[in-house]
Design brief:
Layout lengths: L4 H7 L3 H14 L5 E2 L9 H17 L1 H6 L9 H15 L8 E4 L2 H12 L1 E3 L2 E10 L15 E5 L1 E5 L3 E5 L11 E7 L11 H14 L3 E4 L22 E6 L11 E4 L2 H15 L5 H12 L1 H29 L5 E3 L6 E5 L7 H10 L2 E2 L1 E2 L17 E5 L4 H20 L2
Parallel strand pairs: 1-14, 4-5, 4-8, 7-12, 8-9, 9-10
Antiparallel strand pairs: 2-11, 3-4, 6-7, 10-11, 12-13, 13-16, 15-16
This protein binds pyridoxal-5'-phosphate.
């Protein structure tokens, strides 16, 4: 069969596909596996209880039958869009209406639409998406319909104490060239847990505005919900900013609902994308969350349950790393948000891909660092010495997994 050039990219197994297959194998495994790999959120009882009760009420009242028996508006379930706008206005002081909000089939779908809206062939030449603070989310890698649409600028590394470090936007190296169509940053970052500071975000916004392109902020873990941020940070939005939110990390990844907050023009274009790709969105997750938004209860749930849950998990995982890695050369990125620790083993004597395979044999799934450089031309040795570890799944497995990582890194040094 003859595939298109676009189709060819999916006919060979990409890094993302291979890792997702490995995760699938974990789900089917008979022996216990330490799953420190995927991006699944934790099951947080306060939220699960709400979703279960709301769903039961929805079914009991007949609302469910009505919802599943019709195609909804391609912009999204209208009461949800209105509740999102009202919630963001109340919590962030913005002035949005439902015309600034569009629901999507998950933020992965939001990024597919946004990247291909702002990058690709134009009358003025090919435009690209610029990631100003790599390492960046590996899920961005295959999203351009045309190849070569993504470009990353490596972060500046600040060493902190004996075992810490933090990435910063390297404004001296960052070039917003004339072929850039949008700037995009995850905040907090997947994979690193970095939260670009308010000042950095303001400067990125200024650089984007000067170039006449939007700044896309990926808030899948961020502000104002789900609020998995452990350091001071302000949510931002303006007509030139596109804020992408998601219901996944609140505990609903299976229901595939993303939210884009943007100018009315951009919302209209994304609504047409939705209509073409899917006719309409699945409204179930929107229905489960609308009353939490409308009552403001979501804020309490995020502040009292979601944020503290992950902050505690992060602190615990950091403590286990210090305990297990004692005597090794290692650094941990400041855990400022999201659900991951980003570990750096400077001078690691084997490529991190090899370490990944050895850990897999030992029943520990992590994500090797070199996958997190969408559109980075040069081979950056630093990311071949880094690993992403999720601390969202069961604590005993995380602790055991960190111990096995320490053993394998020690072994790699001993073999040298
Ligand atoms: C930074 C980031 N952005 C976007 C997504 C996509 O999330 P979803 O499509 O589930 O909303 C993820 C998923 O893990 C992510 O980590």
């Amino acid at each position: 069969m003859q595939y298109s050039n676009f189709g060819q990219r999916f006919a060979c197994v990409s890094g993302t596909r291979k890792l997702m297959d490995d995760l699938g194998a974990v789900a089917r495994a008979e022996r216990p596996v330490c799953n420190l790999g995927g991006g699944n959120p934790a099951a947080i009882p306060a939220l699960q209880t709400h979703f279960r009760e709301r769903m039961a009420a929805c079914v009991a009242s007949g609302e469910f039958d009505a919802l599943i028996a019709r195609y909804d508006d391609p912009q999204g379930y209208r009461p949800f869009l209105e509740a999102v706008a009202q919630y963001l206005n109340a919590t962030c002081g913005w002035r949005l209406t439902y015309r600034n909000i569009v629901a999507t089939a998950g933020s992965q779908a939001s990024f597919f639409m946004l990247f291909n809206l702002f990058a690709g062939a134009t009358n003025g030449g090919v435009r690209r998406i610029l990631f100003p603070c790599a390492p960046e989310y590996m899920g961005y890698s295959e999203l351009g319909v045309e190849p070569g649409l993504l470009r990353s600028c490596p972060a500046r590394i600040e060493l902190i104490g004996e075992h810490g470090f933090k990435y910063h936007v390297d404004f001296e190296q960052l070039q917003v060239a004339s072929d850039v169509g949008a700037i995009c940053v995850s905040r907090p970052s997947n994979p690193t847990g970095n939260v670009v500071t308010d000042e950095e975000l303001e400067q990125l916004g200024a650089r984007a505005a000067a170039a006449g392109v939007p700044l896309i902020v990926d808030g899948a873990y961020g502000l104002p919900f789900p609020g998995i941020v452990f350091c001071p940070a302000t949510p931002v939005w303006s007509d030139d900013t596109i804020l992408c939110l998601s219901l996944s990390k609140l505990g609903l990844p299976g229901l595939r609902t993303g939210i884009v907050v943007a100018s009315e023009d951009v919302v209209q274009v994304l609504t047409s994308f939705n209509a073409t790709l899917m006719l309409s969105n699945n409204p179930i997750a929107s229905v489960l969350v609308t009353d939490l938004l409308a009552s403001g209860e979501l804020r309490t749930l995020c502040e009292d349950f979601v944020g503290p849950f992950y902050a505690e998990r992060a602190a615990q995982a950091v403590a286990w790393c210090h305990e297990s890695f004692a005597g090794l050369d290692y650094r941990i990125h400041s855990a400022e948000g999201a659900i991951f620790l980003w570990l750096w083993f400077p001078g690691l004597p084997i490529p991190v891909e090899v370490l990944y395979e050895r850990l897999k044999v030992r029943g520990v799934l992590v994500i090797p660092g070199h996958h997190f450089t969408p559109g980075l031309d040069a081979d950056w040795r630093h990311v071949h010495e880094c690993l992403r570890v999720s601390y969202a799944q069961d604590s005993a497995g995380v602790r055991r997994g960190i111990g096995i990582i320490a053993e394998e890194v020690r072994k790699a040094w001993a073999e040298r």
